[in-house]
Design a protein that fits this description.
The protein has a domain of 36 residues. Helix content is 20%, strand content 12%. The longest helix is centred in the C-terminal third of the chain and has 13 residues. The radius of gyration is 17 Å and the shape is extended. It is α+β, with helices and mostly antiparallel strands. It starts with 26 loop residues before the first strand and ends with a helix. A two-stranded antiparallel sheet has the order 1-2.
């Protein structure tokens, strides 16, 4: 089967390292609800927990 066929599955993406603790660093708290996030405290910007991240994505996807 041809590699460019429309019926072929897309090539597997290279695995990305999971966000999280590095060298025992604690997780950052969500800026909306205060729950732990998947990101270390050293991450810059507004960190969101998985639930708030999903809800924010839903809000921004429907606005426009």
């Amino acid at each position: 089967m041809d590699q460019n066929s429309a019926y072929c599955a897309p090539p597997a993406a290279a695995p990305r390292p999971a966000p999280g603790r590095r060298d025992g660093e604690p997780f950052a708290d969500c800026v909306l609800c205060g729950e732990p996030t998947e990101y270390p405290e050293s991450v810059k910007g507004a960190t969101l927990c998985p639930v708030c991240e999903w809800q924010e994505a839903q809000r921004t996807a429907c606005s426009g």
